[in-house]
Amino acid sequence: MDAAALLADGQYSFDDLVEMFDDDYIEHDAGAEALMLVEATLATRGLRELPVTEGLTAESISAVVDDTRAAWLVEHAPRVLGPGSEEFELWSESDSFNGWAERAIRSVAELRNILTAVEGQGSLL
């Protein structure tokens, strides 16, 4: 079952993702999940379309990714975008690498900006 389906079913474990990031090398599944969660979190803020997965809602995403976990994603997602990441290695072999990297970097920055604004309002941590 992929991460979006697990989110939709209320079965997703963010702690499992954190554990996968404990290694120096980020496997494909962990990297893809982290970037999907960045996009999904932006969707809960109305800035993206929700990933197309039956039963996935903004509520099911928000139940897993609160502001603290979103901040964790902002801190750790950049590891997916460089050497030491299988996701990076796979995309770097593709003609679509630049587009993938630019979108991912922009999304992480956008989520960082949102969280910074929330933190400025005293709502984060």
Label this structure with key terms:
mainly alpha, globular
Question: What does it look like?
Answer:
With 125 residues, the chain is an all-alpha fold. It has seven helices and no strands. The chain has helices spanning 3-8, 14-20, 28-44, 58-62, 67-76, 86-92, 97-120. Helix 3 (28-44) packs across helix 7 (97-120) and helix 5 packs across helix 7 (97-120). The longest helix is centred in the last third of the chain and has 24 residues, at 97-120. It is globular and about 35 Å long.
Task: Kindly summarize this structure in a few lines.
Helix content is 61%, strand content 0%. The protein has helices at 3-8, 14-20, 28-44, 58-62, 67-76, 86-92, 97-120.
Radius of gyration: 14 Å
What is the averaged pLDDT score? 91
List the total number of helices: 7
Number of strands: 0
Question: How much β-strand is present in the residues?
Answer: under 5%
Helix % is 55-70%
- Backbone shape: globular
- The end-to-end distance, rounded to whole angstroms, is 32 Å
Low-confidence stretches: none
Counting helices, strands and paired strands, the structural category is mainly alpha
The H/E string reads HHHHHHH
Largest sheet, if any? none
Organism: Myceligenerans salitolerans
Protein name: DUF4259 domain-containing protein
